[in-house]
Amino acid sequence: MRLGQKLVMQALEKEQKRLTLKAQKAAQLSEDFINATSTISEVRSKATELLRSGEYEKRISEFEELANQEKAALKLMKKDPMKVFDAEHSTRDELNDFNNELSFLTMRYNRGGL
Length: 114
Fold this sequence. Notes:
mainly alpha; 3 helices
């Protein structure tokens, strides 16, 4: 591979990492969105246990942490499901298309083409 080709490949690999990270974030958001109702249920169950134990004054920090988790889950539930899932699929498709092109270019460069 020539120097110019190596530079192109390095730039493309950097872009591949960026797209991979973007796809992972979108997949994580979808997963969190799906699990938001379960999270709320768990958080409220733990909060109820804290209140029933009578030690909630001593464990205020735990109670505040549970409140923050519930707020985050409620915020997720307000998102439009179609947008969340479409974003995941479009980023995954974009990454797959990019990977196909990158493998094609790598193969061409290694054969001495282009």
